[in-house]
Amino acid sequence: MAKRVKRIGVMTSGGDSPGMNAAIRAVARASSYYRVECLGFMRGFQGMIENDYIELNARSVRNIINLGGTILKSARSKEFLTEEGRAKAAANLKKANIDAMILIGGDGTFRGGKVFSEEHNIPVIGVPGTIDNDIFGTHYTIGYDTALNTVIDAVDKIRDTASSHNRLFFVEVMGRDAGFIALNSGIGAGAEEILIPEEDLGLDRLLNSLERSRRSGKTSSIVIVSEGDKIGKNVFELAAYVKDNLPYYDAKVTVLGHIQRGGSPTCFDRVLASRLCVKAVELALDGQQDIMVGMMNNEIKAIELVNALKSKPTINKELLRISDILSV
Ligand code: F6P
Q: Which residues bind ADP (predicted)?
């Protein structure tokens, strides 16, 4: 029979994402509801190594559901990549009587958590939190929806000035090597073209498309470029190349950068974080381990961490077709 869980740990790791605080709140509140103790480790794996934690309870997480960032801070710990680092962390968790750890982060966090659990037999449960939406086993990651809304808000503003000056704008968005942010925000913002790593459209196609839109009477255009796209790898060089080949275009570049990671989470991200984390606590109490909770077709499901790490989610190619039709 599985050991009764009395104390749960939680941490946030990797790139922060809006909704992580809603997730921490849900872990602390669900723990309190089920009468188990909850400790929050600071700066992800690094706080576990340094035994840096705070006690969390239902009241200590008040007024954070609406806050961007993470009250537990985040980091990408180099020390945790070493066996010694992980051994220090395990010793600290054992000393603190932690029965299960809830890890809120992306695939790097889950990879670290899986090795850690295998080496030290401390149950871990992953909760997908990243703006990139690049985790297999969930249709949505915490923070993705907020990031999309931040991007379309920014692009709407760029559109105003693009249209006033008859300009072409290349807007680079985040996503690491996945094009989810670019593809969905591109459609939402009404972009002319969307460049994503999953689909190499080539430079000729881009030039033809821009040439066609000019002939069709468009006076300004927006191209969304995912940071991981091959031809847009350097968005400034891409803009220069387009200017050289289509000299009538006054091309400008905006790199949205880390504003995409900040801000108050949307209602969608708050609800997602709440649902995922209540489930994560319930599964921890049930003695489950080395799993990740995700939302598939609006249902909260758990999959083995090893399976979540094996694959990458695929983009919906239908969205590229929609974008093509709508940029006529
Ligand atoms: O994974 C989230 C993310 O914001 C990616 O979109 C981006 O490539 C990366 O993190 C940037 O990381 P850093 O925090 O090191 O700037």
A: 25-29, 159, 190-192, 218-220
Q: Report how far residue 203's alpha carbon sits from residue 200's, in angstroms, rounded to the nearest whole number.
A: 9
- Altogether, the residues listed in the chain come to a count of 328
Which domains does the chain carry? 7-143+265-310 (3.40.50.450), 145-261 (3.40.50.460)
> Is 35 labelled as part of a ligand binding site?
no
Beta strands in the chain (DSSP E): 7-12, 37-41, 53-56, 100-105, 124-128, 168-173, 193-195, 221-226, 251-255, 291-296, 299-304
Residue-wise pLDDT for 107-153, tens only, equals: 999 999 999 999 999 999 999 999 999 999 999 999 999 999 999 99
Helix (H, G, I), strand (E, B) or coil at 199: strand
* Most ligand 1 atoms within 8 A of CB, residue of 77, 144, 174, 229 to mutate: 174
